[in-house]
Amino acid sequence: MNTQVIEIRKSLKKKLDPFRFEHTMGVAYTCQALAMRYEYDLHKAELAGLLHDCAKRFDNETMLLKCQKREIPMTDGELRDPSLLHAKLGAWYAREKYGIEDQEILTAIECHTTGKKNMTFLDKILYVADYIEPGRYKASELPEMRKLAFIDLDLACLSIMESILKYLESTNCPIDTTTIEAYEDMRRVVAEKEAAKKAAESQTEEIALGESESEQDTLTPTKEVNHVESVKRNGKNRRSRSRREKRRRH
Ligand code: DGI
Ligand code: FE
Ligand code: FE
Questions:
Q1: 98 pLDDT exceeds 50?
Q2: 26 CB within 6 A, ligand 1
Q3: Which residue's C-alpha comes closest to atom 26 of ligand 1?
Q4: Which of 34, 87, 97, 159 counts the highest number of beta carbons within 10 A?
């Protein structure tokens, strides 16, 4: 194990309350599990998970003052609900106090609460891990989200964003524009992926159909004589092929 990770853990254990520390460990392990699944860098995923809530030990007033002092720009949403600032301030601590220079890790920490447009792989891994780590228990759809996270990361992100937005609306919490932008962007990503998948499927079906038609052409000695027969057989092939396709997809 890397000594940097051991030192970070020691420091976090001293600084965070026991619940936050346990949550942090859960997020770090879940980040690594997702990194294994999606073949991402395990060490970077672990560092992002370990440090994502490192600024969560300050109250709102202190975070506002610290951000002002360090000239960290704040959005209207963050000014209305300064608890959101632990993400930006956390990225600042990760860089300045824990020596993290990797911009991808710092950005993932910075956007872990609201998400953002054009989320990177690590942004998504951390965002999802924070929601599904084993210590979480409040959200009702957790078992489905946990499964989905290991099947389709984008869909898991979208699902979590929908659930958080629903919760924020039901509790009348001020919603940051970044949270809405992140949600709309993830909807676009998922819709584009779905459309590409459908186009690829119909192209495969067309190729299969073309192959079956040319097979029939070579089998029949004279096209004209056997035309009706060929149409019948093609129709049959088409049906059985599409049934086979359906069975394979489910
Ligand atoms: O720090 P954690 O509790 O581990 O998790 P987190 O950093 O994802 O923060 C979760 C909270 O942040 C959750 O209660 C939803 C809230 N949140 C996310 N986007 C917004 C938001 N709260 C407000 N007020 N506005 C947002 O846009
Ligand atoms: Fe957080
Ligand atoms: Fe967290």
A1: yes
A2: no
A3: 175
A4: 34
